[in-house]
């Protein structure tokens, strides 16, 4: 069936702010859909409240609404835009829920909007446990025994252990595994509260079973293919988003795998997936060969992003095209250019996904994983051996646990796979691990041991050991390992195991003979990505990297991206000229640079991750665009930065360094209480805190102690600079008083407290600091206004978290400008207006994982938010109110006027 | 991992040398190098009789992950002349060794696949012998096309399984799954040697005859082609893979050698009557050329080659509806056979 001609405009609903269980995979999905539907000639209307997304940049849709994702608002958009169809399958559960509500409210019927990609009944069947069970029973696909509970009174006769699953929630929110009766009652109460329809399912516990997932695509002609199989390394009982996973599945004999495949199709048909992607999850008991369907998502999901990146099969793009009438066999496989999309990818490599957790941010010391997702990010490793993929994923997390309590290796703790690997090295048993994966862990230990005696570096590389491990085993430095091992090969992620020549430039590195060198015509620029999402380094940085990639292409360069985060737009092979899915370690980054011989490497756009690699990249002789190292050093070294501020006659809070509590109290005595204490190398462990007296100043490691400007008003300033002068792009005023981490504070623009005189002062200050640092590109300043005086808290010569917000509020492509500055242009060449003026009043509000962590929304100096929303209005107050609404937050203490006054 | 490494090589007729380590039996093996892109089902693949005279490389790098189970074998032995892998699990490697199969691991199989893809099918030899010897051995290996194979596979004596209406399978190297699937459809399956002539086949009194898969160049199988030609019109005839090619030849169509064959579990085929796409399992180096004289029922979406045809009293498929290993999308082909057997005979048997 060809493209439908009765549809002219399509409304796409995004997924809103980044939350645990619903992250930037939906920016990736939605951006692909926008691009491809516009290319097909549809008018695309987009609603999303998340400013940090690429899809909400003006180029992506014909009309973009940065608005709250609630029924009322989306209904207004529908009334205004009159789209012919609503595509709800690319915006996660949020978009599906909005679609169902719009259907229920009669809005879709009223305005003649057709739901495409999924229908309301299918969405309900997938989410409503009872309907799901009924549909699957009819299709002959077994599901775990269960019963529906809509009140705590209905628990009589129910047995523990059991799993509690609230209906219609994200990432298992409010659910869990109850081991005894008391836990069961508590979980049911919590689940009923979490479920928007007040319904939970109490289900037979399958704890310890194997867990498998299949990503399937279906079209209107009834064709069904499996894009990817995913096997969880952690057993049932750990949410798949928190589990380490491997693709393709490794341990099922083919006939068993085909049972899963058949059941997945039966499931998709039974639920009624109209077209597009769906994810089906199974529990499997290898002894009895019992196979049960656990869950299905009739939409693009986190797993489909993973499957897309793992195979090269662009699920979201195809889902959008299938929704408008095409069938799989009518669509080309863009990787081969010759074959069609109606096929199942064949991999000739292994893909391992490692979750990243930030428990310490929420003060959880004894974290255990369960059926409710807690991971905040993930890294993907591709390799020709399991070891290579596993170790890449492990390194890509950028998170090594501090201490390993091996006695807990059988428990569902977040560092379980670190523990298991170490246990394998020590020859201990590996409880609860499938024998195949246990053998692979032991093989890693054995390879390390063999290397110690043979010193055969090439063999170790071919097996998959990272340079860092080899260096530590051999007692040499990584550079020496690099010299001995030679370069890796560049292998294409081609969806066909090299059976056909790949056209798309999507690669990973391994120690094989590389694929033919891609043709090059222009100089290359390597952009280092941000790695896995984490609290404090999220989608905003991927936005900057992706945007820069597109900008450099327009500026006549070939853009090259390196990133390991499968959820992102930056790891979409359409975003760059060449994509390397590799962990952001010096080893892999230098390998990419050696292959690419770039004209420059960009390290300022991916947050802290690329910055920490910058010295190593520079030392290896590769040019860093914008020459950022000295500026970073000047900004980060408190002594030098303080001296610079003194020289400029700029105020900063008094400060000192302390080696422990006694010294810290001495510093506090000198600068005066209250003080803000930041332990050095804050690594998710104990973070910053405010001490109001000596008794609150407990400290066991070196720290910086700053005078804390109680009640100050904080300003976030994003600046473009060319090494000599600066141009202020935006001044954001924090709603929360000083002491709340800038990433957690609500902000408004224009800043109500900033007078024209103050604005001029800030402009001069920015230029002076930019010149003093010698910064090029983007610079972020954190200022405080305290008792009428301006203080400089921090200067960060790199892209900040607020760059996407400011870009949207001002309509200026800040990253594009920054790219030109990085290439050496002066501010005068950029055609900038005299001053940046927000298009309307704008506000952003942070979103916290309150439903996962009890104290998540207690705003303090330690950042805890996972994402943000943006909204606009005629006045700052209206914008702020709308932002609160978009964040799903009841208004705190009335108007922004009150909020601002309360602070003063 | 590096204990007792037995350095070995795979040498192609074009002189390309791939290093690896021997993990199977000692000695040297030779044949036409081919690759499968299926990611699981290594036991089924290695024991598929269609791999006679071929050296099978797995493009998926991890082989042997779930051990060896005799119930999953597709014949009584490993049929490929040699096995080439990136990484083999010890139990699987030991089993290959116990079967006397020369097998290599640590081979850059992706580079090998690229070579075969770009250069076409290549003869090769592998083992621990010196590279020069392997090279000479590769060159000495006769090409598969245009010659009968030295080794005859398939039943030497007839046997039967299942109960119901009878179908006779002419066994030119059938995978066990084919008669098994037929039996599961409620048929009595009589498997007879591929050397039987039409008269002998008809003496089994079948409701239909299926010509099986098997190795080698179909064009040189004069005896079976003649058998099929005589059977046409006397009994409903079905063919799978080699059987499909033999029916084509018997109908006067021609076969040709594909550049590097279709081997894998992800081959999309369009079923022309329904328009639907089936993901099929394939293992063939030759194909039937479309002459326009016979109704083509299935076409490869990858390269447009004929994947099945049908006519009065016959229907064939080039792919493997029995899968093993791979997707079961084409399983209804057996239902078609079963319903044919269950309906009244269309042809009067003399």
Architecture overview:
The complex is a heterodimer of chains A (904) and B (350). The radius of gyration of chain A is 27 Å and the shape is globular. Chain A folds into six domains: 9-116, Rossmann fold, CATH 3.40.50; 145-204, ATP-grasp fold, A domain (Dna Ligase, domain 1, 2-Layer Sandwich); 210-345, D-amino Acid Aminotransferase, Chain A, domain 1 (2-Layer Sandwich), CATH 3.30.470.20; 490-626, Rossmann fold (3-Layer(aba) Sandwich); 655-707, 2-Layer Sandwich (Dna Ligase, domain 1); 713-903, ATP-grasp fold, B domain (D-amino Acid Aminotransferase, Chain A, domain 1). Chain A is built from 27 helices and 33 strands. The longest helix of chain A has 20 residues, at 435-454. Chain B is globular, with a radius of gyration of 20 Å. The mean pLDDT of chain B is 95. Chain B folds into two domains: 7-140, 3-Layer(bba) Sandwich (Glucose Oxidase, domain 1); 159-342, Rossmann fold, CATH 3.40.50.880. Chain B has helices at 42-46, 90-98, 109-119, 131-140, 177-184, 198-202, 222-231, 242-250, 332-342; strands spanning 7-12, 17-22, 28-36, 54-58, 62-63, 82-84, 87-88, 102-105, 122-127, 159-161, 165-171, 187-193, 208-211, 237-240, 255-271, 277-288, 295-300, 306-311, 314-317. Helices cover 22% and strands 32% of the residues of chain B. Chain B has nine helices and 19 strands. Chain B is α/β, with parallel strands linked by helices. The interface between A and B is large, with 55 and 47 residues.
Low-confidence stretches of chain A: 900-904
The CATH superfamily of the largest domain in chain B is known as Class I glutamine amidotransferase (GATase) domain
Helicity level of chain A, as a percent range? 25-40%
**CATH fold group of the largest domain in chain A:** D-amino Acid Aminotransferase, Chain A, domain 1
Helix content of chain B: 10-25%
What is the residue-averaged pLDDT of chain A? 93
How far apart are the first and last residues' alpha carbons of chain A, in Å?
Answer: 64 Å
Give a short account of the largest sheet of chain B.
10 strands, mixed
The top level CATH class name of the largest domain in chain B: Alpha Beta
Main-sheet strand order of chain B equals: 10-12-11-13-14-19-18-17-15-16
Strand elements of chain A, count: 33
Secondary structure class of chain A reads alpha+beta
Which pair of chains forms the biggest interface, and how many residues does each contribute?
A-B, 55 and 47 residues
State which percent range the strand residues of chain A make up: 15-25%
Query: Rough shape of chain B?
Result: globular
Return Rg of chain B in Å. 20 Å
Extended strand count of chain B: 19
């Amino acid at each position: 069936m060809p493209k439908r001609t009765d549809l002219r405009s399509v409304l796409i609903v995004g997924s809103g702010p980044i939350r645990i269980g619903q992250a930037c995979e939906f920016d990736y999905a939605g951006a692909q859909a926008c691009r491809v539907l516009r290319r097909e000639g549809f008018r695309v209307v987009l609603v999303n409240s998340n400013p940090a997304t690429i899809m909400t940049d003006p180029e992506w849709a014909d009309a973009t609404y940065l608005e709250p994702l609630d029924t009322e608002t989306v209904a207004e958009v529908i009334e205004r835009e009159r789209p012919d169809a609503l595509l709800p399958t690319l915006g996660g559960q949020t978009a599906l829920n909005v679609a169902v509500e719009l259907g229920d409210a009669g809005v879709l019927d009223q305005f003649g909007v057709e739901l495409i990609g999924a229908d309301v009944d299918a969405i309900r069947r997938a989410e409503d446990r009872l309907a799901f069970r009924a549909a699957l029973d009819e299709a002959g696909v077994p599901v775990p025994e269960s019963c529906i509970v809509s009140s705590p009174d209905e628990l009589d006769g129910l047995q523990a252990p059991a799993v509690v699953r609230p209906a219609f929630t994200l990432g298992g929110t409010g659910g869990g595994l109850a081991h005894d009766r008391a836990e069961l009652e508590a979980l049911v109460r919590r689940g009923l509260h979490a479920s928007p329809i007040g319904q939970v399912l109490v289900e037979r516990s399958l704890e310890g079973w194997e867990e498998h997932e299949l990503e399937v695509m279906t079209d209107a002609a009834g064709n069904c293919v499996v894009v990817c199989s995913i096997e969880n390394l952690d057993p049932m009982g750990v949410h798949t988003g928190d589990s380490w996973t491997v693709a393709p599945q490794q341990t099922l004999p083919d006939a068993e795998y085909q049972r899963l495949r058949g059941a997945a199709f039966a499931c998709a048909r039974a639920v009624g997936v109209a077209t597009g992607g769906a994810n089906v999850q199974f529990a499997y008991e290898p002894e009895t060969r019992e196979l049960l369907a656990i869950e299905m998502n009739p939409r693009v999901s986190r797993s489909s992003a993973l499957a897309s990146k793992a195979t090269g099969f662009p699920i979201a793009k195809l889902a959008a095209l299938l929704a408008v009438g095409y069938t799989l066999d009518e669509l080309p496989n863009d990787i081969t250019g010759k074959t069609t999309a109606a096929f199942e990818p064949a991999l000739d490599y292994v893909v391992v996904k490692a979750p990243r957790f930030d428990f310490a941010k929420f003060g959880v010391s004894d974290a255990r994983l369960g059926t409710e997702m807690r991971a905040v990010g993930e890294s993907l490793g591709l390799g020709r051996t399991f070891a290579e993929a596993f170790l890449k994923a492990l390194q890509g997390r950028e998170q090594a646990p501090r201490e390993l309590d091996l006695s807990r290796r059988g428990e569902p703790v977040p560092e379980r796979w670190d523990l298991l690997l170490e246990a394998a090295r020590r020859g201990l048993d590996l409880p609860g691990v499938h024998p195949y994966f246990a053998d692979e862990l032991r093989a890693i230990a054995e390879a390390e041991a063999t290397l110690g005696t043979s010193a055969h570096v090439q063999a170790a590389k071919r097996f998959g050991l990272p340079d860092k491990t080899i260096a530590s085993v051999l007692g040499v430095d990584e550079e020496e390992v690099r010299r001995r091992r030679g370069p890796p090969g560049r292998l294409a992620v081609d969806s066909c195991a090299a059976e056909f020549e790949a056209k798309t430039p999507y690669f990973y590195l391994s120690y094989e003979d590389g694929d033919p060198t891609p043709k090059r015509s222009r100089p290359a620029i390597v952009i280092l990505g941000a790695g896995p999402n984490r609290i404090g380094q999220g989608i905003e940085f991927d936005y900057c990297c992706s945007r820069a990639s597109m900008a450099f292409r327009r500026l006549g360069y070939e853009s090259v991206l390196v990133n390991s985060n499968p959820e992102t737009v930056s790891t979409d092979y359409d975003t760059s000229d060449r994509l390397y899915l590799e962990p952001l370690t010096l080893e892999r980054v230098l390998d990419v640079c050696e292959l690419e011989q770039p004209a420059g490497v960009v390290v300022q756009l991916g947050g802290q991750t690329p910055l920490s690699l910058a010295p190593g990249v520079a030392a290896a002789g590769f040019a860093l665009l914008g020459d950022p190292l000295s500026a970073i050093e000047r900004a980060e070294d408190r002594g030098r930065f303080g001296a610079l501020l003194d020289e400029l006659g700029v105020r900063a809070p008094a400060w000192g360094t302390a080696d422990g509590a006694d010294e810290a109290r001495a510093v506090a005595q000198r600068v005066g209480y209250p003080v803000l204490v930041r332990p050095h190398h804050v690594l998710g462990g104990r973070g910053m805190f405010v001490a109001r007296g000596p008794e609150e100043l407990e400290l066991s490691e070196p720290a910086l102690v700053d005078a804390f400007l109680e009640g100050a008003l904080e300003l976030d300033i994003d600046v473009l600079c060319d090494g000599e002068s600066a141009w202020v792009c935006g001044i954001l005023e924090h709603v929360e008083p000083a002491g709340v981490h800038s990433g957690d504070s609500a902000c408004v623009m224009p800043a109500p407290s900033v007078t024209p005189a103050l604005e001029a002062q800030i402009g001069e200050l920015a230029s002076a600091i930019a010149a003093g640092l010698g910064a090029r590109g983007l610079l972020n300043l954190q200022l405080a206004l305290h008792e009428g005086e301006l203080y400089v808290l921090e200067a960060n010569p790199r892209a900040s978290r607020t760059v996407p917000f400011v870009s949207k509020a001002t309509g200026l492509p800040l990253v594009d400008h920054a790219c030109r500055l990085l290439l050496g242009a002066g501010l005068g060449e950029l055609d900038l207006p005299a001053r940046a003026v927000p298009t309307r009043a704008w506000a952003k509000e942070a979103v916290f994982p309150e439903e996962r962590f009890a104290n998540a929304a207690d705003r303090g100096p330690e950042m805890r938010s996972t994402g943000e929303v943006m909204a606009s209005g005629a006045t700052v107050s209206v914008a702020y109110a709308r932002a609160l609404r978009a964040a799903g937050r009841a208004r705190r203490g009335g108007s922004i006027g009150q909020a601002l006054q309360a602070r003063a | 991992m590096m204990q007792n490494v037995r350095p070995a090589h795979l040498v192609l007729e074009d002189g390309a040398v791939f290093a690896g380590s021997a993990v199977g039996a000692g000695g040297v093996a030779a044949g036409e190098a081919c690759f499968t892109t299926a990611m699981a089902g290594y036991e089924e693949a290695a024991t598929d009789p269609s791999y006679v005279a071929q050296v099978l490389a797995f493009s998926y790098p991890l082989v042997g992950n779930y051990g060896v189970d005799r119930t999953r074998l597709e014949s009584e032995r490993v049929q490929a002349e040699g096995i080439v892998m990136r990484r083999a699990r010890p139990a699987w490697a030991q089993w290959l060794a116990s079967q006397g199969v020369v097998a290599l691991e640590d081979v850059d199989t992706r580079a090998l696949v690229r070579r075969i893809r770009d250069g076409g099918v290549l003869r090769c030899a592998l083992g621990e012998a010196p590279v020069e010897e392997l090279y000479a051995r590769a060159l000495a290996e006769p090409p598969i096309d245009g010659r009968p194979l030295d080794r005859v596979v398939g039943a030497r004596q007839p046997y039967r399984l299942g109960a119901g209406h009878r179908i006779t399978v002419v066994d030119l190297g059938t995978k066990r799954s084919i008669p098994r699937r037929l039996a599961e459809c409620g048929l009595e399956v009589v498997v007879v040697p591929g050397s039987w002539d039409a008269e002998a086949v008809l003496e089994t009194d079948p409701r239909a005859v299926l010509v099986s898969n098997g190795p080698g160049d179909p064009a040189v199988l004069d005896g079976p082609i003649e058998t099929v030609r005589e059977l046409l019109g006397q009994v409903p005839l079905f063919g799978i893979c080699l059987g499909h090619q033999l029916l084509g030849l018997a109908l006067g169509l021609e076969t040709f050698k594909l550049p590097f064959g279709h081997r894998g579990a992800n081959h999309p085929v369009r079923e022309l009557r329904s328009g639907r796409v089936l993901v099929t399992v394939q293992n063939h180096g030759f194909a039937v050329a479309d002459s326009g004289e016979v109704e083509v029922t299935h076409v490869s979406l990858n390269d447009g080659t004929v994947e099945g045809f049908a006519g009065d009293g016959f229907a064939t498929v080039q792919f493997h509806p029995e899968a093993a290993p791979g997707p079961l999308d084409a399983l209804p082909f057996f239902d078609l056979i079963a319903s044919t057997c269950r309906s009244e005979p269309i042809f009067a048997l003399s």
